[in-house]
Inverse folding.
């Protein structure tokens, strides 16, 4: 995956490029908004990571300019402004995701990977998701594992659906809260963990291999445990 | 605190120039000029009219006399005319008469001197003259008229206008005096008014200086007259109160940061230091780093919460307010916490009326509700095997929507209910639970931003937190039956008031 990091703080940028390269991605860096725009326009990036406050051209204007040029490269906005209305403004400008500073790298990585994957994905979502023997039918609202039907509550179904849609990718707790519940506030406690462990008890109990894995310090991932 | 700008120097000795610069003085001066001009106009008009009236009267007398004398001359010839003129001339207070030959020689009359050429002009003119009995040195004014008799004789009849001129002089003097009086009175009045106003303004300025120099408790004096200065003082006082509140809030934030953020920072530092000093294995170091990151994450959360509260108190999130289905949010958040409640051995009971709408921010309302439910789950465990339930309810009460989270725990003593809304306040019994003491402050901020009220009540036993928010005006669309329901059973609701 090729990434462009537009960030004026040299230290933060160096940390990010190094971290992304360590996990096997190609990461370029632009120190200000204009250069970032020029590099992004050159194309070839899968995801743009853009700081909101940049010299010469601010992050939101950068994204807006790209969108006007019909450049739909997924963009994630990093911002020290973490209030509800700032996030809305960021998304309105054409950003695809918004992450307040300071952030955990694992959170950023998970979100960037989801954005990159979304780019390659077909426009229409498939009607079924399959991970190993686990099958989720979105139309019939049915989940089976090794042929046995598993009865899920509607919210559990949506939780599993999101996890399976991003099978093989790390999904963080905040991503689950935002995408399954559509909440963007701090729930104060480990609510998501409790929901996942409930789901896990239905999906994994009685089977040899777990499907829902906890990724330490990051979140969760659905993958076929037999592999 | 130092004043951010130089306070203007005040000099008592320059009181008078200050007085002249006051608005009250300037206004009075302007009124004075306008009034004086108006008075001058009125008096001038009266004088002019009076003079014109008198002149007209004089003219009609002259006309009548000329007509009478001309008639006499026509009937009895010049001789008769001369006789009559001689007789009339001698009467006291007589008019002016002069009869001359065609070449201008005086035949009869009581006029001694007239300006040359007067007799050549027939008709009316105003001249200086002298009577026969008087010296020529003191000429008087008169309106005269010359009439040409048959055979070229001329008859001049006139009347003295001294009376008219005297009246004019009297009025002119009156104008002069009244101007002087208006000026003196006006000066005195404006000085008096300006001094009164100035004294109050000076009082205000003095208070303001005191406040700038750091006496934030100072307030402007209210005279109790209810005039514009009083209203200004009241408004300024209200503004000062609000500034005071904000300052106190900021002071509190600073104190909080000092006390409550330094503690975890110290812990973080100690932990790192200890790991450096004692940890031998990479695993031990890793564990120490994990701990440090967790500590840092907690600090970030505290910071975010503090910033959010500060922002809520500044009232700056209102541009993302929209119509919200509160019932949906309450049910959703309750559902989010339901497994957590179950894990804590509590039943989360929802009692939410459908179709409740408010104008607000979905995330903020969700956050407030989440904080209340989180608190209830943490502190709402029944003391002595009572009913282990947390009730989340939403219903409409009049023009408001009441949102409540009630538990059966220890509750909050009445004396502490105001205090717990402050930042970082944690009651002693709660210290065993994780948390920062910011949850309720945040709820209070959200509620205030939405124009609602937050009440903490005794649930006997336990705590009931009640948020009352103004209900949104229902849109007509919302009264349509939901899809699938039989439209025939839906009562017509033209007023658009949702039935509860």
């Amino acid at each position: 995956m090729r990434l462009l990091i537009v960030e004026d703080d040299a230290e933060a940028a160096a940390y990010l490029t190094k971290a992304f390269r360590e996990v096997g991605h190609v990461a370029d860096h632009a120190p200000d908004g204009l250069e970032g725009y020029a590099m992004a326009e050159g194309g070839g990036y899968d995801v743009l990571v853009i700081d909101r406050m940049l010299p010469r051209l601010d992050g939101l204007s950068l994204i807006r300019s790209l969108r006007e040029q019909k450049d739909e490269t997924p963009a994630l906005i990093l911002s020290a402004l973490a209030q509800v209305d700032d996030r809305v403004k960021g998304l309105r400008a054409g950003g695809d995701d918004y992450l307040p500073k300071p952030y955990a790298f694992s959170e950023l990585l998970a979100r960037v990977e989801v954005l990159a994957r979304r780019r390659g994905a077909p426009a229409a979502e498939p009607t079924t998701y399959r991970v190993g023997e686990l099958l989720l039918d979105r139309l019939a609202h049915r989940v089976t594992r090794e042929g046995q039907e598993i009865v899920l509550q509607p919210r559990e179904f949506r939780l599993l659906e999101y996890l399976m849609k991003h099978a093989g990718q790390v999904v963080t707790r905040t991503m689950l809260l935002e995408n399954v519940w559509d909440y963007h506030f701090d729930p104060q406690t480990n609510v998501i963990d409790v929901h996942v462990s409930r789901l896990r008890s239905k999906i994994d109990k009685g089977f040899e291999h777990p499907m829902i894995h906890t990724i330490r310090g990051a979140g969760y991932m659905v993958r076929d445990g037999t592999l | 605190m130092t004043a951010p700008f130089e306070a203007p120097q005040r000099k008592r000795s320059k009181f008078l120039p200050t007085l002249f610069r006051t608005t009250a003085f300037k206004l009075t001066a302007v009124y004075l000029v306008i009034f004086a001009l108006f008075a001058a106009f009125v008096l001038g008009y009266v004088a002019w009219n009076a003079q014109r009236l008198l002149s007209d009267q004089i003219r009609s007398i002259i006309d009548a006399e000329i007509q009478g004398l001309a008639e006499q001359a026509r009937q009895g010839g010049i001789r008769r005319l001369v006789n009559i003129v001689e007789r009339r001339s001698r009467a006291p207070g007589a008019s002016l008469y002069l009869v001359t030959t065609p070449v201008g020689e005086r035949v009869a009359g009581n006029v001694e001197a007239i300006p040359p050429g007067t007799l050549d002009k027939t008709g009316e003119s105003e001249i200086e003259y002298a009577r026969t009995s008087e010296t020529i040195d003191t000429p008087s004014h008169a309106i005269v008229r010359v009439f040409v008799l048959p055979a070229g004789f001329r008859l001049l009849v006139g009347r003295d206008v001294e009376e008219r001129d005297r009246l004019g002089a009297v009025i002119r003097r009156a104008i002069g005096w009244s101007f002087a009086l208006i000026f003196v009175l006006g000066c005195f009045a404006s000085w008096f008014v300006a001094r009164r106003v100035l004294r109050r303004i000076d009082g205000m300025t003095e208070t303001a200086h005191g406040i700038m120099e750091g006496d934030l408790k100072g307030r402007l004096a209210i005279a109790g007259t209810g005039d514009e200065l009083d209203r200004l003082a009241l408004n300024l006082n209200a503004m000062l109160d609000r500034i005071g509140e904000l300052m106190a809030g900021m002071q509190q934030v600073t104190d909080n940061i000092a006390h409550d953020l330094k503690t975890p920072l110290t812990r973080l530092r100690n932990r790192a230091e200890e790991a450096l000093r004692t940890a031998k294995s990479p695993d031990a170091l890793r564990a120490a780093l994990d701990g440090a990151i967790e500590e840092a994450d907690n600090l970030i959360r505290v910071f975010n919460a503090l910033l959010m509260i500060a922002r809520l108190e500044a009232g700056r999130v209102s541009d993302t307010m929209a119509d919200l289905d509160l019932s949906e949010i309450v049910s959703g958040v309750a559902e989010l916490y339901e497994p957590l409640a179950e894990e804590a051995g509590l039943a989360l009971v929802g009692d939410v009326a459908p179709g409740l709408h408010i104008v607000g921010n979905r995330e903020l309302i969700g956050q407030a509700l989440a904080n209340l439910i989180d608190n209830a789950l943490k502190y709402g465990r029944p003391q002595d095997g009572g009913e282990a339930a947390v009730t989340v309810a939403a219903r409409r009460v009049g023009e408001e929507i009441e949102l409540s989270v009630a538990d059966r725990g220890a509750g909050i003593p009445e004396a502490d209910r105001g205090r717990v809304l402050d930042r970082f306040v944690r009651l002693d019994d709660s210290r065993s639970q994780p948390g920062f003491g910011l949850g309720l402050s945040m709820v209070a901020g959200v509620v205030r931003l939405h124009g609602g009220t937050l009440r903490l009540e005794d649930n006997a036993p336990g705590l009931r937190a009640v948020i009352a928010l103004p209900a949104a005006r229902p849109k007509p669309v919302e009264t349509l039956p939901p899809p699938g329901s039989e439209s025939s059973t839906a009562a017509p609701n033209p007023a658009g008031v949702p039935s509860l």
Residues 198 and 227 of chain A are 24 Å apart (CA to CA). The longest helix of chain A spans residues 105-120. The interface with chain B takes residues 82-85, 88, 100, 102, 104, 155, 181, 183-191, 194-195, 198, 217 of chain A (CB under 8 Å).
